Amino acid sequence: MHTLTSLHDRQRAAQQQVRDQIWTLYADLKAYQRAPDPAAIAPLRARFEAIFTQKTAGLPSTKP
Fold first, then answer.
1. CA gyration radius for the chain?
2. 9-47 burial, b for 16+ CB within 10 Å, e for fewer?
3. Which of 10, 17, 40, 53 has its CA 20 to 30 A from that of 25?
4. Distance spanning both ends of the chain, measured CA to CA
5. Distance between CA 10 and CA 28 in Å, rounded?
6. Does any domain span residue 64?
7. What confidence tens digit (pLDDT) does each residue in 43-62 have?
8. Which domain holds residue 36?
């Protein structure tokens, strides 16, 4: 995430939103690690999937 560069304000805002989602999830995972709750597993997994499978607007990929 730190190596991504955005050219437009909207892209920067979207990038920051995803970054915030990741750090919030990370904090919640650390809290789960300290005090595991089986009821929290499904919601944590769902949030992980939602974050890491979302499509964001941006520049076309340069990968072949």
1. 15
2. eebeebbeebeebeeebeeeeeeeeeeeeeeeeeeeeee
3. 10
4. 20
5. 27
6. no
7. 999 999 999 998 866 555 54
8. 8-52
Higher pLDDT, 9 or 29: 29
Q: How many domains does the chain have?
A: 1
27-33 contacts, C-beta under 8 A, 24 or more apart:
none
Q: The tokens of 16 are what?
A: 């920051």
Is residue 30 one of the residues assigned to a domain? Answer: yes
Longest dimension (CA), the chain: 44
User: Could you tell me the pTM of the whole model?
Assistant: 0.74
